[in-house]
Amino acid sequence: MRLDRLSLYLIALALALALSGCGSAPTSQGAMLSNAVRSTVAVTPTSSLAQPKSAVANPSRLIIPAIGVDAFIEALGMLPNGDMATPTQHPWEDVGWYNSGPRPGERGSAVIDGHLDRPGAYPAVFWRLRAIHIGDDVLVLNTNGKKLHFHVTRIALYTPQNAPIQDIFGNKGGTYLNLITCAGDWIQSQHQTT
C-alpha cells in the first residue's frame, strides 16, 4: 500500500473497553491523518486509559461485525522505499498491524491496513469498509486472549497529497486505532489504485 500514491480511507476508532482494571479515558476527539482527502467524523473514547507497552500483547485478530470482517493480523513494518508493508501470508484476507508503532490499546496511533480489493477488482478484506458507520464496534483480539473493544469515531477519505501521515501514525494525544485501505479504481498496468 503506497501511502504517497494511493487515496487512503481511514477509520478512526476510540478505545471503548479494554483490559480489566483500567480507569476511564478523558474525553477527546480522534484526529489523525496527513496527505489525503478529508471527511472527518470524531467520537469520544468511552472508557479505559491506554496501557503501558508491557501490559498490552500483540494483536492477533480484527473483528468488525457490522461489515463481516474476521481477519488474522500480521505484524508488518516498512518497505525499503518507506511505504508501510501490506499482508503477505494471505494478502487479500489478512490485515496488517504497523509494528513500529503502538499496539492497539496502547497510547498513540495503532495502525492496521488491509487491501480493499485484489487484481481484477474482486473484493478483499476491507472491501466493505466504506459501509462502516460511526459507533460501529471493532474488536481486536490479542495473543494473550484479551479482547479490546473499539467504536468507530471518524471516517475520512484523503488524497495521497493530503493524507496527514503524522496524524495517522504519530498522534500521541490519546489511544487510537486507525484502519486504512486504498480507495479508487484499480489500474492494472500500474498495479495500484487511483
What is the gist of this entry?
By secondary structure, the chain is mostly beta strands.
Q: Measured on Cα atoms, how large is the radius of gyration?
A: 15 Å
Overall structural class, as computed from helix and strand content, comes to: mainly beta
Write the H/E string, N to C: EEEEEEEEEHEEE
Distance between the termini: 12 Å
Shape: globular
Bin the strand percentage.
35-45%
* Sheet with most strands: strand arrangement: 1-9-8-2-3-4-5-10
Say how many strands there are. Answer: 12
Taking the sheet with the most strands, its summary is: 8 strands, mixed, barrel
The CATH architecture would be Beta Barrel
CATH class label:
Mainly Beta
Q: Which properties best describe this structure?
A:
globular; eight-stranded mixed beta barrel; 36% strand; two-stranded antiparallel sheet; 194 residues; disordered N terminus; Sortase, Chain: A; 1 helix; mainly beta
